[in-house]
Design a protein that fits this description.
Layout: E1 14-18, H1 23-34, E2 38-43, H2 46-56, E3 67-71, H3 77-87, E4 90-95, H4 112-132, E5 135-144, H5 157-176, E6 181-187, H6 194-199, H7 203-213, H8 222-234, E7 242-245
Parallel strand pairs: 1-2, 1-4, 2-3, 4-5, 5-6, 6-7
The protein binds NADP nicotinamide-adenine-dinucleotide phosphate (NAP).
The site of NADP nicotinamide-adenine-dinucleotide phosphate (NAP) has 29 residues, from helix 1 and helix 4.
Length: 252
């Protein structure tokens, strides 16, 4: 068939991943680059972003021309505003950003300020993305919650509350932002650097013990969650939904 003048130009898909310098976000960045997308990763630490850029461009057939890193703290509205002013309209926005340092605490000695940090990063940050991102009508906005909302443990009330709230936020925004689709991926335990903060020296032992309990027989790999995020991005009939990617952890 001859190429007609009216043949629409195929545009490169554009995605922003806040939290793309580590763990699940980094795995998604790698996956989206392999899919041919233009990828912007954002996070607070320029050093972590630079290390991620090195890792993502280390292979032959470098993807450097489709990768950009922007230093931004999702808890700071001016950062998020600047991020989207810098990169312009996008097709997809995903956040995996969270810093759980000190977030697990018994309610009797609950430190409100530390709890507030997690609310700001996961919940208010998600709302700031919804406010400032310019997303194509065919595009999507995806948040990352977590198993703590569905299988809570003592000391995890704040983490449970914040993750649980993301489901309601996504439902509400799926109505308000339509036709842009808004969803949540809820990981189970996944072997990423976040566990250095949560468990310290006990990281390996705790992940191994969980692997034995899970129907899946192992804990998650960051790519397991990245593939689920990709499914939410790609399936145009999914909106206002929480996709559980937990190896069956809600069942045990
Ligand atoms: N791994 C698990 O077992 C697990 C289980 C359930 C849920 N989750 C959820 O999955 C998400 C990703 O976790 P992960 O395991 O991939 O964690 P990770 O390896 O620690 O990565 C977190 C990323 O978020 C960024 N970040 C943290 N605070 C930020 C902020 N205020 N503004 C911008 N970026 C920020 C970090 O970079 P900087 O520090 O440089 O900002 C880093 O890139 C989190 O929401 C987590 O709660 C994880």
């Amino acid at each position: 068939m001859p190429v007609s003048e009216t043949t629409p130009e195929v545009q490169t898909e554009r995605i922003v991943i806040v939290g793309g310098s580590s763990g699940i976000g980094l795995a998604l960045a790698e996956l989206m680059l392999a899919e041919g997308a233009e990828v912007t990763i954002a996070g607070r630490s320029p050093e972590r972003l630079a290390a991620a850029e090195r890792e993502l461009t280390r292979q032959e057939g470098s993807t450097a021309d489709r990768l950009r890193a922007v230093t931004a703290d999702i808890t700071r509205e001016e950062d998020i505003e600047r991020l989207f002013k810098t990169i312009g309209p996008v097709d997809h926005v995903v956040t995996t950003a969270a810093d759980v340092t000190g977030a697990y605490q018994p309610i009797v000695s609950f430190n409100v300020r530390i709890g507030q940090d997690l609310i700001d990063a996961k919940l208010v940050g998600a709302m700031l993305l919804a406010k400032h991102a310019v997303i194509a009508p065919t595009g999507s906005l995806t948040f990352t919650s977590g198993i703590a909302a569905y299988r809570p443990a003592p000391g995890g009330s704040m983490v449970a509350a914040v993750n649980g709230a993301l489901a309601s936020l996504a439902s509400a925004l799926a109505i308000e932002m339509a036709p842009v689709r808004v969803n949540v991926a809820s990981p189970g335990w996944v072997d990423t650097p976040i566990w250095d903060n949560i468990a310290g020296d006990e990281k390996t032992a705790r992940l191994e013990a969980m692997a034995k309990r899970l129907p899946a027989g192992r804990v998650g790999d960051p790519d397991d969650i990245a593939q689920a995020l990709l499914a939410l991005i790609r399936n145009h009939f999914i909106t206002g939904t929480v996709l559980h990617v937990d190896g069956g952890q809600r069942l045990v």
